[in-house]
Write a structure and sequence with these properties.
The chain has 103 residues and is mostly helical. The chain has a single domain, classed as Helix Hairpins. It is 78% helix and 0% strand. Helix 1 runs antiparallel to helix 2 and helix 2 runs antiparallel to helix 3 (60-90). The longest helix is centred in the last third of the chain and has 31 residues, at 60-90. The radius of gyration is 17 Å and the shape is elongated.
């Protein structure tokens, strides 16, 4: 493997690991959403990195990343709307507190 690609992959791996750790350990829905965004951004960075090193003359990785970013923005808007409605219903964004909605 080319050593130059490692300089690009290391930040992506760190972002992914931080996102997974944050998603698993947090109980606040907003913090979990931010962690999920870190994971998605790590994947987008990988699309660009591998496109640059495997197919340097094409732009498919960049275009795919732009579509993924647009979809992630829409997903974030919907998730924040759901979180706001949950907060209005139970007064908390804690995952454990969402069991109150069953009653």
């Amino acid at each position: 493997m080319d050593l130059n690609i490692l300089w690009y992959l290391v930040p992506s791996v760190v972002m992914f690991a931080a996102g997974v750790y944050g998603f698993v350990t947090r109980k606040n829905m907003i913090a979990m959403l931010v962690s999920l965004e870190l994971i998605l951004n790590s994947a987008d960075l990988n699309f660009v990195i591998f496109n640059r090193f495997l197919f340097p003359d094409s732009m498919e990785g960049m275009v795919f990343s732009l579509f993924a970013i647009a979809i992630a923005a829409a997903e974030t808007a919907v998730a924040i709307a759901i979180i706001i409605n949950i907060y209005r219903a139970i007064g908390s964004t804690d995952i454990v507190e969402t069991n109150k909605m069953k009653h």
